[in-house]
Amino acid sequence: MPDYFLTEEQEMVRDLARQIAEERVKPVRAELDENEEFPWELVKILAQADLFRVWVPEEYGGLGGGTLELCLATEELSRACAGVAVTYAGSALGGTPILLFGNEEQKQKYLPPLADGEKLAAFALTEPEAGSDAAAIQTTARKVEGGYILNGTKQWITNGGEAEIYVVIAMTDKTKGARGASAFIVEKGWEGFGFGKKERKMGIRASATRELIFQDCFVSRENLLGREGMGFIIAMRTFDRTRPGIGAQAVGIAQGALDEALSYAHQRHQFGKPISSFQAIQHMLADMATQIEAARTLVYYAARLIDSGKKDISKISAMAKLFASDVAMKVTTEAVQILGGYGYMRDYPVEKMMRDAKITQIYEGTNQIMRNVIAAELIKELASR
Is 229 exposed, middle or buried (0-12, 13-18, 19+ CB in 10 A)? Predict the structure, then answer.
């Protein structure tokens, strides 16, 4: 692997995550996938290793790292199992709005247990009729004395039902469209807050995806995040910070698939030779490796740019997610092809990797939406010249 000029601390994060992935995740990934089992034992291991602390500032119990450290850990876990990795990264997604927009009291209350790995977080924006179209959100937050009453449904929420802390986007003023959305911190167990069925998915099956149901759920005004009407801004700023994490998942999945394809091609013999000696296979492997390295470089660059404090990160963040996820889908498909019939069988991990890769093109904004974001930023830059 090329030298990415990581600090000693960043190398430690990467190496620790890689060790856990190899020693603890790989042996159970097939079972977790088959049984669609939430990986609580692995969550505990990651917590004991302090990996949940990497993105949290020191004053809230974290290690003071940032987006790059989170990407490094997520990539390594994704090489072994993307379902486990998204459980880990999904908690950071849920905690990021609190880090970015929470007041001091909210940060002191909610970030330390997330850093400890004692509790998981989740982010709830998507609804049955509202994904990329935030103005179509139907979940409402009606203002009452002392707080708000939430009613509505959120769909396809990562860590849903398992997380203790939820950041929920709801409409406080429907007449204002997207500008009428607000963000709230809601805790599992509150009256009027429940869950629908656990979804059965193509991939990332170890990860829990559930519907959130709000029926006259009271949320105190202390749990309003930011100000009324900031919900859409909070969601978009959060995604700007976290989309490189999806890119890191994609890079990890792709690297894991290349590792398997390369090993198989070296061992598999046809016509008296290992198939890795055939130029057709060599060219496939070369293209896969090149695409992965390009995706990794873009993801790390985006993460570093975010950690530098740069404000205009929407374009590069979307690019990292877009390019890496497209690479993951392409590389895993090629890995299945190299393994041939074996690649199509559940006994080999590349079919799982191919299933897992698909979601990286969909969640946190589909790749079609990413192209819209990138194009809009390009046009804005042209207009400002």
Answer: middle
- Taken in order of first residue, the domains within the chain and their CATH numbers are 8-118 (1.10.540.10), 122-229 (2.40.110.10), 232-383 (1.20.140.10)
- Nearest Cα to 117, choosing from 145, 94, 88? 88
Q: What is the pLDDT of residue 126?
A: 96
> How far apart, in whole angstroms, are the C-alpha atoms of residue 129 and residue 79?
33
The structure tokens listed for 341 are: 């019939």
pTM (predicted TM-score)? 0.97
Residues of the chain falling short of pLDDT 50: none
Predicted confidence at residue 1, as pLDDT, reads 63
Among residues 130, 152, 128, 157, the alpha carbon closest in space to that of 140 is found at: 152
pLDDT of residue 17: 98
* Residues with Cβ within 8 Å of residue 237, at least 6 apart in sequence: 97, 100, 101
Catalytic choice (75, 364, 377, 381): 364
The yes-or-no answer on residue 364 being catalytic is yes
Angle at 108 between CA 103 and CA 113, to 5 degrees: 130
The token duo for 263 is 């090993």
- The four Cα atoms 113, 116, 120, 126 give a dihedral, to 10 degrees, of 80
What's the pLDDT score for residue 134?
75
Half-sphere exposure (Cβ direction) of 384: Cα atoms closer than 13 Å: 6
Note the pLDDT tens digit of each residue in 274-331: 999 999 999 999 999 999 999 999 999 999 999 999 989 999 999 999 999 999 999 9
pLDDT value of residue 132: 77
Contact 183, 224 (CB under 8 A): yes
